[in-house]
Each structure stands twice: as C-alpha cells, then as structure tokens.
C-alpha cells in the first residue's frame, strides 16, 4: 500500500512578520557596531537638543545605546541659553564680542552655577534613568582642563572679554578611569586657570567654548570620532545661496572654507579641524533638531550631517 502524501498546496506559506524591518535595521548596523566597538566617542551636546524636552530624552537614549552597544561615549556640554536666562533673572547683561560671551567675575559665578548645577545635573539624571551610568564633572575637577586667558579680536585688535579661556592642556586620567569602569562622563566646559590671576596659578577658572573643549578632549583621548550637535543640517556648501549640505570634506578643504563661514559655525568647524589634525579619525556636525541623530549618523548607511576627515588617509573612513 502506498503512503499518502500531503499536497504541496496545503503547506502553510511563511508568515510576514511585521517586525522584520527592525531586524533589517539591526543587521544594517552590524558593520558599524563591529567597527566602533570599544572606541571612544566624544559628543558635544548643544543647540535645540539642550532645551527641547523630547530631544533631550532622545539624546540620552542615544548616548546610553552607544554605551550598551560597546562604545565609550563622553559628553561635553555648554549652556548658552540657560546662562543668558539666568543672567537676565539676576538683572545682569549678556554681552558678546566676536561671538564670545563677555565673562565678568560675576558672570563667571553664574556660568559655574548653571553649567555644573543645572545643565549637567539634568543631563546626568536623564542618562541615569537607564541605569547608574553617568557621572558629572567640570573641567576643573581632577585638573581635566587647564586654560589660559583668551582675547577676542574686534576690528583686528585684541579685546579683553574677562574670564574666557583657551584650552592649554588636558588631563584624561579621571575620564579614562570612568570609561574603564563602564561609566559615561558628562563634562561641563569650565577650566582651571593657569594664569597668575585670582590668587596665583590655578587660583581662578575660565569659561571655555564647549565646541573647543570637546575637540581638545577628543584629541587628548584619542577618540574614534567627535560629534557636534547643532541647529543646522550640517555645513552648507554655499550658504545662503544654497541649502545643499556638504556630506564629507577633508581638513584642507575645510580650512579653505573657514574664513567665509557664519560666526556661529566657526568654533564648531574649527573644533572639527583641530580634532582630525590631532589624531581623531572623523569629526561630524549633526542636526540636533532631529531625534536620534547620533544613531542615524553612526549606525546607518546614509548617515546625516557633515563629516570631516584627515587629509592623508588610506581609503575612505567608514562612517
């Protein structure tokens, strides 16, 4: 007697799983997860991402995702809008020269209070909603950042703008220890003074541009990449005549463009230039108004924003 067979038509077809696109997205991220595993990433937190509640929450999720995916994120932040708001409350004027905040001793007290006591604490708390990961520090702590006095250039002449500094040196020991312990350092852009002011060497502190501080820290840490969040899509090729974003350029190409950039973009792009010329593999300017912009840049084929790469390289860097 022959054994009956089941007609092929009666075999159920494979089900279409609605979650399949998620799996494809994860697979797309695999080469980048492998590429960046164990690498340090310095992220400058700024722009609308600092003041919009949904963007702040998405930023915290992105940073924690990086850490859980095997990267070593370090966050550097300023707090311009929050500082200006607090100064206004206290009846103190916000004054800027050549794009830099004039920082009197009274203003410096407010800067320290806002950065370390408000912006940093809020960001640390957002990150720690996902586990005991983030640790807040200022550039003063453990002598992480030391700075010398910076002068603004107005009409070709140096102008004293108070307690504003340029990074002179970086001590990475405390940050490395936190990274080795699986923590996420969150650093406020305040540096100790190395000048003979306010009671002698090291007796004072300086307000440091957060873009500059992040770039210097990325170089000192030997970071894989520097990521700068801002309020534009990236570097525009011919602003304001065109809104085309430059997706990638070399350090030399960026240097040629710097003199013609809008004042707000100069410290960001100068920071990117410094980073890639001092050992950082790539530097990127991202639109912080886009939720999860960090993940889109690092873990997708398309990427977003503008990437700066060193002049001499073997092959094209992987995003």
UniProtKB/TrEMBL annotation:
Family: Belongs to the acetylglutamate kinase family. ArgB subfamily.
Protein name, entry field: Acetylglutamate kinase
Chain sites annotated for binding substrate: 79-80, 101, 207
GO molecular function: kinase activity
InterPro entries membership: AceGlu_kinase-like_sf, AcgluKinase_fam, ArgB, Asp/Glu/Uridylate_kinase, Glu/AcGlu_kinase, NAGK-C
Function: Catalyzes the ATP-dependent phosphorylation of N-acetyl-L-glutamate.
Compartments, as annotated in UniProt: Cytoplasm
Span of domain Aspartate/glutamate/uridylate kinase: 40-286
Signal peptide annotation: none
Pfam families, per the entry: AA_kinase
Keywords from the UniProt entry: Amino-acid biosynthesis, Arginine biosynthesis, ATP-binding, Cytoplasm, Kinase, Nucleotide-binding, Transferase
Species for this entry: Streptomyces daqingensis
EC number: 2.7.2.8
Site entry: Transition state stabilizer: 44, 268
Catalytic reaction(s) noted: N-acetyl-L-glutamate + ATP = N-acetyl-L-glutamyl 5-phosphate + ADP
Pathway: Amino-acid biosynthesis; L-arginine biosynthesis; N(2)-acetyl-L-ornithine from L-glutamate: step 2/4
Domain of life: Bacteria
Gene3D superfamilies attached to this UniProt entry: Acetylglutamate kinase-like (3.40.1160.10)
